[in-house]
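dumping this here before i forget
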Amino acid sequence: MQRSVAGLAAVSGAGLFASCSKNAPSTPEGSTTSATLSAPHRPLGATGLDVSLLTFGGGSQFLKNKDGQWEPLLERAVALGVNLFDTCSSYKWGANRSSEERFGEILPAHRKKILISTKFESRDPTEALKEFDRSLERMKTDYVDMLLIHNIVPSEEIAALEKGVYKEMVRLKAEGAVRHIGFSSMDSAEKSRQVIEALDLDICLIALNPTRYGSFARLTLPAARAKKMGVLAMKVMRNIVGEKSTPGELLHYAWSLDGVATALVGHCATHNASATEILEDNVRLAQTFAAGGEIVMAPRAQRDLEGRLSPLAGPHALCWARPNYRDGQQGTEGFCA
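structure:
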C-alpha cells in the first residue's frame, strides 16, 4: 500500500513553517494536544541507535532565538522525545553564545537519554582535535555520539582526509570519545559518494529535498544505503517551505526516502508563532507520518512535488547554495537570513 502527499496534506498541510523567513499560521484546530505529543523514533542505519524522526538543528535558525527563548525550546524538545541534537564547532550568531555553549547549558542534565552530534571545520588533524576538545568543553560532556567532518566539498582530497582527520576520528572512536563518525555535505553529492566508498564511516548528513538540488538522493543516498550508514536529511525546508509546498509534504518527502532515518530542522520564532509552537507542530507531523505506518510516498505524488519545486533548485532561491555560504555564521559572504 502507498500513501500520497495529498492524503498527508489533508491531515497536516496547515502545519507551522519551520523557516524564520515566513510568517506561520496558527496550529490547526483538532491537532494532537501537547499532552500526547511524542516524537516517533526509528533505527539509524547499522549504528544500533534509535533516533527521533525529527533532529534538533543547532544552526542559524536556532541561534536566532534570544536569551529566554532558546532555553525552554531545548527543554521542550527533550520533553517531546526528540533525542538527537546536532551542532558544529563554528555555529555562532553575532554576540550570542555559540550553539555548543547553549547546548552545554541545558543538555548535560539529560545526557543519558539524548544523542549529541557535532562537527569540525579544519582539515588539519591538529586543529581539528583542538576544535573537538573545545566542543567537549563547551557542551560539558566527555564524549559525543557523532563526530562529523563539516561540509565535504568538490575539492576534497580523499587521500588527505584518510591520512589526516579521518585517522584521528578513528582513534577517537576507538578510545570512546566518539561513538560514531561521518561527514556532512550540501555542496558535492559526487564527492560525498566517493568519501562513502573510500572510508569506513557510520553517519552522513546530506541535503535532501524535492528541488533535488545537488542530486544527493540520486548520487549519495544509494551509496550510503549500500554500506548501511545512518543518514540524516538536512535542508529539508530551508527556502522552500511555503513555496508551493507545505511542511507536511516536505517532511514526509524526506522521511520517505529509502535509507533516511531522520530530518534535521532548525526552529526559531516567527511573527505569530514561537519556536516552541513550531517545534511542537513538526512533532505532530512526525506522529502523523508514523501513524501511517511509514508508508513510502507514492511515486506519482513524489514526482508532482519535485515538479512543483524544481524551479527553486539553485542559488537564486536556495540561500545555502550560494558560494561561500556557512550555516550559523552571520555576516559571511553568501549569508542569508
